[in-house]
Amino acid sequence: MTSAQAADDVVARRAGRRRDDSKDDAILLAARELLAERGFDGMTMDAVAARAGAGKATVYRRWASKVEMTVDAVTCGTGVPLTIEDLPDTGSLRDDLMAVRFGRHRPDDTEIMSGLMSAVRENPEVASVFHAQFVRSRITLMRDLLERARLRGELRDDVDLDMVASVAPAMIAYRKVVAGQRVDDDFVVRMIDNVILPLVLDVR
Amino acid sequence: MTSAQAADDVVARRAGRRRDDSKDDAILLAARELLAERGFDGMTMDAVAARAGAGKATVYRRWASKVEMTVDAVTCGTGVPLTIEDLPDTGSLRDDLMAVRFGRHRPDDTEIMSGLMSAVRENPEVASVFHAQFVRSRITLMRDLLERARLRGELRDDVDLDMVASVAPAMIAYRKVVAGQRVDDDFVVRMIDNVILPLVLDVR
DNA sequence: TAGTTCCGAAACCCCCCAGTATCGTTGACG
DNA sequence: CGTCAACGATACTGGGGGGTTTCGGAACTA
């Protein structure tokens, strides 16, 4: 409980209409949708407010700037990045990787990643949250999964884990952001079976 | 000889000061530098003109818009993409790949690739030249080199050439554009030796 | 020298958009 | 019901930048 909430409950609540907390989510959702559809530059604050069914004043009452709103939209909206804690050991690296793709997780956020790219170059705050949300967490997850497979004895012993851990994130981001192609299930499975696994597995 | 040049030589040359063709190169060079330093949005036409030692009118006398100038800056400036014709068969895939990186070619243009990214999303013309210059040509080159290695008998026979051909371009673009890290010689060599070659080579 | 064309510099126009201010309205509290 | 804060809508401000025009000067032809 924050001190502000305590003040509301214990001390007399201030008069006047109370803030509609559901608007926070509506605004952040609108921001994410527009980020995915039009990118950071195309996501105007007027459009965000309009899609959320709110006025701009309501948006700026909650966030001081477009950047701060964007940071919250990305961090709160796309959720805490997946970690190895969320993925029970299936006993095989292939099944572990499939679980990452096909498990019951948040929807594909490559569109948001793509839409954020333009803002990353010129905004350190955005760059920081982008890196944490879309780069570091994914490489770390891959590295942890590979490490687990290594302990199970699945991997050859000369694998460069740090390098290999970035192969899948790189190929997925490249296909979406740089090459501008769809990242569908076919592509992911084919990448896993024809690139990642042949690269690390002991069996031949 | 173009008809315009013929007209200049045969028919009477029009009166007045002649266009300084060297300005074209100066402007395109300034555009590339600013594209690399500040990205497409940060590259203002005023800055391009100023760096080229020209007036904006001079720029707009040659190109109708910022986009058209950018397209020319990228296509003319970074040169014709490398093809397998430019790379004599060294007899080994590793040496072929090293020749791509360390051969006597144009300077590293990952900065320009990175700077163009923001414009790709919202401009089909830029997207087209970007794709030709930085995506298609590189994947094709990789694929041709792999094919050549396959004919030499270097490769395992179950290699997914189309998929593998995009691994190196993906990892380099990812590291630079998405992860925001330097693409130095160490990284490239390590990628070749610990990812690309283990993935395709027959020897084990 | 007269006429023409290109030059750099700079003023200018116009649109877009982040952010602010003001409106009348709505709803919670006393 | 009176008060007051949050609400949606909307007008407004200020800065940035693409693109155009103007201007005096320079370079070229005749």
From TrEMBL, chains A, B:
Residues 21-81 form the HTH tetR-type domain. InterPro entries: DNA-bd_HTH_TetR-type_CS, Homeodomain-like_sf, HTH-type_TetR-like_transc_reg, HTH_TetR, Tet_transcr_reg_TetR-rel_C_sf, TetR_C. The keyword Protein biosynthesis does not apply. Residues 44-63 bind DNA. SUPFAM superfamilies: Homeodomain-like, Tetracyclin repressor-like, C-terminal domain. The keyword Acetylation does not apply. Keywords: DNA-binding, Transcription, Transcription regulation. It holds the Pfam family TetR_C_11. This is TetR/AcrR family transcriptional regulator.
